[in-house]
Amino acid sequence: MIEVRVPDEQEGTKAVVRSWLKQVGDSVAVNDPLVELETDKVTQEVPAPAAGVLAEILLDTDAEAVPGAVLGRISAEDAATESVRAEQSRGAPAEPSEPRPSTSLGTNGDLETRLSPSVRRACLQHGIDPARLAGTGRGGRVTREDVDKAVAQATVVSVGEPATAQPRHFAGADIPHDPMRLRIAENMIRAVSTQPHVTAVFEADFSAIVAHKAAIAARGVKLSYTAYVVEAAARAMAAAPAINGRWEDDRTAISPTIDIGVGTALGEKGLVVPVVKDAGSLSLEKIGARLDDLTRRARDGKLTGADVSGGSFTISNHGVSGSLLAAPIILHSGQAAILGIGKLEKRVVVREIGGQDAILVRPMAYVTLTIDHRVVDGHQTNAWLTRFVELIETREQP
């Protein structure tokens, strides 16, 4: 028997089984797509490690899949022979089945292990006894869809029934949580509860960036504002190296490379954070090219686990969707800081010109740095932001 395992390269990111592409008894070839896993960032297929017949499924749909866990097993016997046996067994009279284990919540709050994590959460949240549900999953298993249907039926009051005081419900308008949304929620709760957040707010004049962007566009080189932000963030690390680190029990670990994750919205599907690896060694043009590639593949659903892992710092360019200020932005687990960039808009500012105050109109944006206060204090935070703003405002022209 050959074990099918959850890939190790997820680096601790939680994953759930999204769906099995093969069923028990199906023949598989080496590298055939076998099962889909979904994390808070990407969906990936796990290929068959050997040819044979899928003999067991150990982690079914919605089950949590930690790196290295056994998903199922493949019988390495001759695939054709095994398929014949499976076909014969399907045609044989069914043997009496064992009684279905109880899936009730029990008085002590224990949940039956046959329920997936998603189903358990939904049953607890809505007070549903899964033992009363007719499971539509494999082997009579109760699925999340079964729970959602039960909740919807329980919240619809039939016409003519006496009105009773009860919470307001929006029957038919609910949006069930998909695995990505659940993982995002779990990550946010964990970050807020374990990392003390403090946010500093600065303001940056993007006049130099606007001029530089226009000048190189005239030569046929197109760059996004995010590329300039990534470059300035990488260079600002010299002012406060601990910003590119993380908290550990006995020390602050400083990353040897500056690997910057950039939040990328996927509409109703949530967001992902692809990482520009070793941004500190890249030119502005190379940063722009990396960003274009990562953003395109993110929106096409073609990012790999390596594309979204290993970040040492994160940027949330929330201003592209219209917000002026977002604070605090939630820290990415295992990182010391996250930079927020607000909407770029023309604002009236006062500048000193020739010893006299002058009222000018400039393209301005609020920038925030939310930090893990265990790792750095206000001094390092403000030093980093001061340098970052200086790099934005004094960008040399081509």
Commentary on this structure:
Strands 8, 11, 14, 15, 16, 17 and 18 form a 7-stranded mixed β-sheet that branches. By secondary structure, this protein is an alpha+beta fold. It folds into 2 domains: 2-91, RNA polymerase II/Efflux pump adaptor protein, barrel-sandwich hybrid domain (OB fold (Dihydrolipoamide Acetyltransferase, E2P), Beta Barrel), CATH 2.40.50.100; 195-393, Chloramphenicol acetyltransferase-like domain (Chloramphenicol Acetyltransferase, 2-Layer Sandwich). Strand 17 (345-353) and strand 18 form a beta hairpin. The protein has 8 helices and 18 strands. The longest helix is centred in the middle third of the chain and has 16 residues, at 179-194. Helix 2 runs parallel beside helix 3 (144-155). Helix content is 27%, strand content 24%. It is elongated. 33% of the residues are buried.
